[in-house]
Amino acid sequence: IKPVEIYGTDISDPRNKKFLRPYKDDVGVYTIGIGHKIGDGSKAARDSWVNKYGNSISPKFAEQLFDKRLDYHLKRVKNVFGDTFYNLSDKQAATLIDKRMERNAGIIDS
């Protein structure tokens, strides 16, 4: 699964530097990295994040946050679909995981 929030497929791309600092997403929720919602998305959550992690993160840490979120939602989708999950095409599986991640963006907080 490749995230659509960033330019290209590499968070290290210089165009993606802005995503390594807390930013408001398209609906005004504070986010960092590859679509990682900060706490409840509020300014207070952003301030708490900055106090804990600083004003920016490394591309590697951004990828770790994304991978953690991806693994979490992949396990949930596999649990719902059971063995039939393995009968899905890669595109179908990716779509299900992507939709789950969209709906449950705040499930994992770091």
Number of strands: 3
Low-confidence stretches: 106-110
CA-based gyration radius: 15 Å
Strands of the largest sheet, in order across it? 1-2-3
Mean pLDDT: 84
The gross shape turns out to be elongated
Helix content: 40-55%
Largest sheet report: 3 strands, antiparallel
**Strand/helix succession:** EEEHHH
Backbone structural class:
mainly alpha
Strand proportion: 5-15%
Main features:
110 residues, mainly alpha, 3-stranded antiparallel β-sheet, 3 helices, 6% strand, disordered C terminus
Written description of the protein model:
The protein has 110 residues and is mostly helical. 44% of the residues lie in helices and 6% in strands. It contains three helices and three strands; from the N terminus they run βββααα. The protein has helices at residues 43-53, 59-81, 90-103, and strands at residues 23-24, 30-32, 36-37. A three-stranded antiparallel sheet has the order 1-2-3. The longest helix is centred in the middle third of the chain and has 23 residues, at 59-81. The two termini are 21 Å apart. Residues 106-110 have low confidence and may be disordered.
Topology:
Blueprint: E1 23-24, E2 30-32, E3 36-37, H1 43-53, H2 59-81, H3 90-103
What is the compact description of this entry?
44% of the residues lie in helices and 6% in strands.
